[in-house]
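Thread amino acids onto this structure.
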């Protein structure tokens, strides 16, 4: 699972989202602007390798226009072991605007630090 934390004292609103999927065996894009796609395209790229949306992975929890609560977390996505076997990483580029109009952008590596070979199986997510 991966979540984003709004550490500010006030709400921020999601203005832009982009996804970059790197599948197992692929190389990272050399150009920082290459490979960014919409969520539906990212989901399709992953499903083409076999994992099923909402059964093996999910990326639907955050969206343009949604608020990030002050001092709160919002789930970005989750991946099962089966999905992580097909996906090396997913980057999410998140741009938000705070209440005073300042823009903040972060690139989040959804699978950074993921335990790709757990010692025990977790129960099914759904």
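Threaded sequence (126 positions):
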């Amino acid at each position: 699972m991966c979540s984003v934390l709004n550490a500010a004292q006030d709400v921020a609103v999601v203005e832009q989202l982009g996804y970059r999927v790197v599948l197992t065996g692929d190389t990272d894009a050399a150009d920082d602007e290459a490979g960014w796609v919409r969520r539906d395209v990212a989901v399709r790229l992953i499903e083409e390798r076999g994992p099923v949306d909402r059964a093996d992975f999910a990326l639907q929890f955050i969206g343009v226009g949604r608020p990030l609560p002050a001092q709160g977390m919002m789930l970005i996505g989750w991946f099962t072991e089966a999905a992580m076997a097909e996906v090396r990483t997913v980057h999410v580029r998140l741009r938000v605007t705070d209440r005073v109009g300042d823009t903040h952008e972060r690139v989040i590596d959804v699978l950074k630090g993921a335990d790709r070979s757990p010692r025990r199986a977790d129960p099914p997510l759904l």
